[in-house]
Amino acid sequence: MSALEETFKELYGRPAEVIAEAPGRVNLIGEHIDYSEGFVLPFAIADRTFALIATNGDGMVRIASQQRKNRIFTIDAKDVKPGSAGDWEKYVLGVIWTLGITGGVDILVDGHVPSGAGLSSSAALECSVAVGLNSLFNLGKSLEDLARATQKAENDYVGMPCGIMDQSVSLMGREGSALLLDCRDLTTESVPFDVASAGLELLIIDTQAHHALVDGGYAERRASCESVAAKLSIPSMRHLTMEILDARKSDVTDTEYIRARHAVTEIQRVKDAVTALRANDFTTLGRLINESHFSLRDDYTVSCPELDVAVDASLEAGALGSRMVGGGFGGSAIALIKANQIEAVKDAIKKAYGDKGFKAPRFFTSLPSAGASARSL
Ligand code: GLA
Hints:
CATH class of the largest domain: Alpha Beta
Radius of gyration: 21 Å
Strand content: 15-25%
Strand order of the largest sheet: 5-4-6-3-1-13
Distance between the termini: 10 Å
CATH topology of the largest domain: Ribosomal Protein S5, domain 2
Number of helices: 11
Order of helices and strands: HEEEEEHEHHHEEEHHHHHEEHEE
Bound molecules: alpha-D-galactopyranose
Number of domains: 2
Helix content: 40-55%
Largest sheet: 6 strands, mixed
Number of strands: 13
């Protein structure tokens, strides 16, 4: 019995019935376009969250975490609905709610995706619980069903209007490949991402910054895209081109124009990045990654000084490409670097952070890893 299974037994007095796991993610390119029916190119990272689950006969939902074993959050299953009590437990409760689980369950989670680093620890938590419940209750849901259910949990239970990228890649990620995801219908294609054989490495830089704008700023960007779509009578940014946007410029505000320009150009960059990757053209991939950052910084204005300094220092130290990932206003950046330059790039970022008086950054690397899974115990 693993240490985690032992903890479950100690906390709940009997063994877990299922163990599930789901990874965090980084996104190579395709930022802030998942909620506009765009294309994204993320991959699942090796770090993951585990969820141990068992049914109980008493109609209560209990949630504990290996990181804070002294607290068991308890709620009557009948009270699991939006607006309920709960802090991080709401990510778990939201999934129970969207999957329509009405009986009592005991849950223990063990999170290894750094939280607050923009690596989707919340999607990893939601998806580990979702695949665990799907297996435990034989719900027969597809990965697409689970992606929509976990997104709904986060939108309607937690109150964060996220798109569907993070949950999709946490569920559908594939070892060795980035996932080209069409956010309109959730179809996917594997795009091999083998940086090592090209003598490269993808460095993940956790800026350790977390600005207050995170939630309101995200919702405001999403609302801008929806407003442009409504004004131009199109379903989403997916249906927009620069020709149409320029011809209709006077119908939208200046801010909406630059937000929409980001969406249109970012969707094209994802397509170009897939072509570049398939041709092993990492120079072009690096350029597209840089252009994505400039667009997020200047048109979408979701970057922050810590992210910009990480990107600038990486590029000055020789990275092929570097950009912020995720929602922005903090979190992580990535840098595509020649393997023999990795230490020089890290040193350059550390020095730039020291000079600016920023908190020291943290560095990770990860190869593309498999998506979520569950098995009975
Ligand atoms: C967050 C959201 C995603 C996506 C990214 C930006 O990670 O959860 O749905 O919108 O921001 O690309």
